[in-house]
Design a protein that fits this description.
A hairpin with a 4-residue loop joins strand 7 and strand 8. The protein has about 260 residues and is of the alpha+beta class. Helix 1 crosses helix 2. The chain is built from three helices and 15 strands.
Length: about 260
């Protein structure tokens, strides 16, 4: 390859031209960093003019140079005239951990954060021919009407701000009269616009990050409409605290989901 030379007589030395290093070794990585950075900036409603480089690559002068130029070029292409600064903390590799410790010591410092995925559960709701896919249409004999399965009911959507006190609750009822257990699976996906948790071949297309299994006995033969289950997801911490409560018995189950679950 042009730009690469091996010299066996000089301690088996491999010489690589600077242009090759930049284009073949570092170039693709840097471009990936730039693409992700600009994609994140594009989702911000306001136009920040100060950015911090943190993490393993944060302290690299080469990364700083390339990312700074890319952000400046991006802003100019959008018609922004204000200057922007890309700063590097004294210890960029510790910046994320430091921020987590600061939050733990004083949560009031942080008012909100933007989530990078959709979080929700799978539900079955009354079928609407104008909104739902026929492939997921099923007949519920206990309710005597058609339902749409595999609906992705989103609690928090990618790009939304999760406030420090963000707690969201929804309500559900058992699917059938004879159900004595409710299995509530919590999903996430980075893809916007996902309406169902499965495709038409019934293959799962979202990621499972947690599960709640709740006993829902019905000794008094209550109708389905009175067997309410409250499902709550608390986004206020560094992890998602999820719980389900059966109003009939008051029994509650909990689980913890990681924001960064794959």
């Amino acid at each position: 390859m042009n730009g690469i030379e091996y010299d066996a007589d000089t301690n088996d030395t491999l010489y690589i031209n600077e242009s090759v290093i930049e284009s073949k070794l570092f170039g693709p990585v840097i471009q990936g960093v730039i693409d992700c950075t600009l994609a994140a900036i594009g989702k911000i409603d306001n136009c920040p003019n100060t950015f911090y480089l943190v993490g393993a690559f944060g302290g690299c002068k080469y990364v700083h140079e390339k990312v700074s130029a890319a952000i400046e070029s991006y802003y100019k292409s959008k018609g922004h005239t204000d200057a922007c600064s890309v700063l590097v903390p004294p210890t960029p590799h510790l910046a994320v951990a430091t921020g987590a410790v600061m939050w733990r010591k004083n949560p009031e410092k942080f008012k909100a954060r933007r989530v990078d995925a959709n979080y929700g559960i799978g539900v079955s709701i009354t079928f609407n021919a104008k909104k739902h896919n026929e492939a997921f249409k099923t007949y519920n004999k206990d309710r005597e009407e058609y339902y749409c399965d595999y609906i992705f009911s989103v609690f928090l959507e990618k790009g939304e701000l999760a406030k420090t006190n963000e707690v969201i609750t929804t309500n559900a009822t058992p699917r059938y009269k004879d159900d004595t257990t409710a299995s509530i699976i919590i999903y996430s996906t980075p893809q916007l616009g996902i309406q169902y948790i499965k495709d038409e071949n019934k293959k799962i297309i979202v990621t499972t990050i947690g599960k709640l299994v709740l006993d829902i006995p019905n000794p008094d033969n209550l109708p389905l409409s009175q067997r309410n289950i409250d499902i709550t997801m608390d986004f206020s911490g560094t992890e998602i605290q999820a719980k389900a409560r059966y109003r009939v018995t008051g029994k509650e189950v909990k689980t913890v989901c990681d924001f960064l679950s794959p």
